[in-house]
Amino acid sequence: MLIVYFWTANNLDEELMQWSDIAPSVGDLIPGTDQPVGKVEFYRGDLETVCLAISRPVYGEGHHSFNVQLRPDQTIIQYGMSMEAKPPTGRLMNYETTSHPTLMRPNPSNWVVSEVETCNPVATGSYKAIHICYCVDAPLPVAV
């Protein structure tokens, strides 16, 4: 199962994701921190189970979805949240800063979402769903 840890350190929201056969329990320490797990939630899909181990409030509780994009070897490419509770589709984008303080420049990545598994909360959850997005490496052709 995929374990997703959420905590706050030095006034910054932090996340850690790892694969494990054993889910953490309330009171266990988040790996590499002194932060105890305050709440554990499970989300199930057809293939995967996701466990959220939370020690801080989750933004948009109950209304948003969380998504994780995976390479074929199940390492994480990136992750994020959807305010519309929808998974990413198509080519994943990277963003770089510009001279404008809030404007970002999109750059297409090599990764394309090939399949999405929706994991729904087993009981009341912090998210409407967690989307596991399986991706394939599909570089854009080079213009000649």
Could you explain the architecture of this structure?
The model has no long low-confidence stretch (mean pLDDT 90). Strands 1, 2, 3, 4, 5, 6, 7, 8 and 9 form a 9-stranded mixed sheet that branches. The protein is 0% helix and 52% strand. It is globular, with a radius of gyration of 16 Å. It is mostly beta strands. It has strands at 2-9, 12-19, 39-44, 49-54, 65-70, 76-82, 91-97, 104-121, 129-137. The termini are far apart. It has one domain (2-137).
List its traits.
144 residues; mainly beta; nine-stranded mixed sheet; 0% helix
Largest sheet: 9 strands, mixed
Average pLDDT reading: 90
Tell me, briefly, the overall form.
globular
Low-confidence stretches: none
Put simply, the count of helices is 0
Helix content: under 10%
Number of E-type strands: 9
Structural class: mainly beta
Radius of gyration: 16 Å
In whole angstroms, the N-to-C terminal distance is 44 Å
Strand content: over 45%
Query: What is the succession of H and E elements?
Result: EEEEEEEEE
Q: Give the total of domains.
A: 1
Topology:
Blueprint (H helix, E strand, L loop, with lengths): L1 E8 L2 E8 L19 E6 L4 E6 L10 E6 L5 E7 L8 E7 L6 E18 L7 E9 L7
Parallel strand pairs: 1-4, 5-9
Antiparallel strand pairs: 1-2, 3-4, 3-8, 5-6, 7-8, 8-9
